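Colleagues,

Please find the record for the two-part complex below.
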Amino acid sequence: MRIGIDAMGGDHAPAEPVAGALAAREMLKEGDRIVLIGDEKAIREKLAATPNWAEWIEICHAPENIGMDESPVVALRQKPNSSIAVMAEMQADGRLDAGISAGSTGAFVAASQMRLRRLRGAHRPGIAVVAPTFHGPVVICDVGANVNCRPTHLYQYGVMASVYSKSICGIKNPRVGLLSIGEEDAKGTDLVKQTRALLKADKRINYIGNVEGRDVFGGVVDVMVTEGFVGNVMLKLMEGMAGGVMKSMLKELVSEMPQLAEKVMRAAKAVAVRYDYNEYGGAPLLGVGGISIICHGASDYRAIKNAVRVVEEYSRQQVNEQIAELLADGAEAQ
Amino acid sequence: MRIGIDAMGGDHAPAEPVAGALAAREMLKEGDRIVLIGDEKAIREKLAATPNWAEWIEICHAPENIGMDESPVVALRQKPNSSIAVMAEMQADGRLDAGISAGSTGAFVAASQMRLRRLRGAHRPGIAVVAPTFHGPVVICDVGANVNCRPTHLYQYGVMASVYSKSICGIKNPRVGLLSIGEEDAKGTDLVKQTRALLKADKRINYIGNVEGRDVFGGVVDVMVTEGFVGNVMLKLMEGMAGGVMKSMLKELVSEMPQLAEKVMRAAKAVAVRYDYNEYGGAPLLGVGGISIICHGASDYRAIKNAVRVVEEYSRQQVNEQIAELLADGAEAQ
């Protein structure tokens, strides 16, 4: 398969995306190739230290770049030669089997929605993020693709994220929870109540009921279904806490025990790995007719390399085919 | 003033509410009294070890109790003699100047909304929680009183929480942020966009723009405005992370350095105090014509004692009068 990587996307581009493409060689099956999309000169510079790069990497020149603060739709229209626009075009016409970007999430989602066909039966694509917790990975869907959610969208997120949890995280019978503000049936918004009925009716999903924000870390769910606005707030909040709070806490610990600074930091590092988004290889946009993996803007080469791993697994497990089948059957059942 | 405490509310009732009432003596002004509402026999038992309790405490017998899992409205109707219902009635007819409960938040909010008049000019009450962060206290409003939010409700939360931040947290010119999923004007739901216009138009508020979930911990805002569903998810998520993650992290640190267990734990405790909700004295229900302070279900005596401190400060600073004045002027201006 041919896997595209946006070389210009993210806070550390092109260095980290290119380093990720180099490191990803070990993830590839025989015959697979990586296509770096972006400014050719800049990419070549970063590849220069690895003389044999051409054995698994190609370059596709895309001179324009979409900034993090640009309006996605406007930017895509004004910059048809941006790395994100070119990559989506290549995915759409079959020159790429998958796309990976750590650039503007909005632009990447919009490009995927505009250029790739929607996955058969899927109403709205949703971004599924794997939150690392001490009890294992929890897939949260959606975290920001869709802020005008209807019950069928949320229901489908439950179906799609279940398949993802099973296929990519290796959870046998993923427990699906619907995020609300209380565990009782009676609580929550109309959206929650209507979605609950749909999830409950589908016996192919292991729907365990409504859950609360704290349950992400409680080991009670493997999949958490929520609308994009709320999911995005959760994601950012977790990042803020993991970053700010943990760091401050360690600083305080060290200041109390300066002689142990090194040991504390080493132990903390071991812990932090479990919470490191770079280890999880990006978030798929579920529901599009292709494989689009969104990486965090702060991604380093490991995140890009892990995204390649996810792409390979996604393809091998036929995640999209599984989802389409479930959605087709679900539509008949209802 | 006369301050009511629900002796039956919370995971550790009646022991902790009663202990809180005893400890709160030092918070009271001359002539102030605390009224413990609940099962008289159980309350007397807990007071027995303090012979002079009657110097500042009274008891009001309320034989019924509303459980955490009961539907608030149904429970209030079926249990008119529950501690929460009796307390609200006493607030409404002037026998109490304030009410404090660590019991069912839903029932307490519903009772306050039904029995207390709405504060002049306020459309919908909102719960304001003080989130302890390393950069100082951040007031988040609403965290669950109102899940059918309109732009005017959100705008008023900004006004009310600003007054609270200034008066109770001592922040001079509180920076108000509107929670969204991106900092740009164009992002977010219609609710966010319409609220943004209202906040921007009111020059008496220090509105700094849209903020994201991570900004709670970033030291950029003192007040975060959000609808109840999202605010509640945030609150629970923070609790889950602070509890589960921190504990797991410390456990791991200790297992890496068993000989230092005691030191690590002592240092950690010093840190944890900053994140301890018990130190913050509960969350006011802003927008009702009275003082209702909601405590966490897991509250210990310190939380109850601190809630009494908040009540005294709330009254001294005339928080409700300030809010009513701002809302009245705002209505004219618009």
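The two ends of chain A are 36 Å apart (CA to CA).

Comments are welcome before we finalize the supplementary table.
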